[in-house]
Amino acid sequence: MNFSAIIALCLLVGAAIVAPTASAASIDTYPNFFSSDQIKHFASVDVDGEGAEEVFNKAFGVAGPGVPGRGETVNRSVGAAALDPAISRQLLDVTGTQMTAEELRSIPITKITGTTRKHVDCHYHSGELAVDKVAFVFLESNPEAKFVHGSTEIPVEAGKLVVFDGNVPHNTRVARGTVALAGPVDLRRLSVVWNISPPTSKSVKGPKSPKSPKSSKAAKGGSGAPSVSPTKQKK
Known about the structure:
With 235 residues, this protein is of the alpha+beta class. It is built from four helices and eleven strands, in the order αβααβαβββββββββ. The protein has helices spanning 3-18, 36-43, 52-60, 85-95, and strands at residues 27-30, 76-82, 106-112, 120-123, 133-138, 142-149, 152-156, 161-165, 170-174, 179-186, 191-196. The strands form two sheets. Strands 1, 2, 3, 4, 5, 8, 10 and 11 form an eight-stranded antiparallel beta sheet that branches. A three-stranded antiparallel beta sheet has the order 7-6-9, with no helix packed on it. The radius of gyration is 27 Å and the shape is globular.
């Protein structure tokens, strides 16, 4: 290896050492992203009525394989509302996100009535883990509730846009009242995300191996010598 090649290799190794890791959790908030009129518009969406599920399915379709259905979530109701293209463009402009899909035409409206389980986000149709930024906007203020992302706690304040890493465990804690929000959606794809249990670091136990057959006991009156296990034949 010549001298210039060695220098190039050292530079590559140095760059790899100082490069930031993608696993670092981040969360950003943008107060007053929604105006009071926008908050009223989205907050008026019915998420509990008989037609809410039909509206949601018409806007987003049905859950993909392995994704919990709309009716399987606890302490959470979901509906849908049409989204003005100007809001979706504002969402991308404010966050500096480069869009990789068409403009979002509808947005889920979520009502949380109690503390949700800790979860990560996945794409609603594919079940694929959401590795890009996820976003939602609070539609009401509740001093008795907070959004917890990793070790960060965010107060629930109407109009506030919250942008975070969806693959970091998070949940909403509600001591009293409710939390309404527009979203959540994947910012880059502008698609609906759903909640699934976070991956566990514990190894999954596989099926138990069959027990080896016990050595047959020596016949009565025999020599009493221990039996010898047969050796496996080489293939």
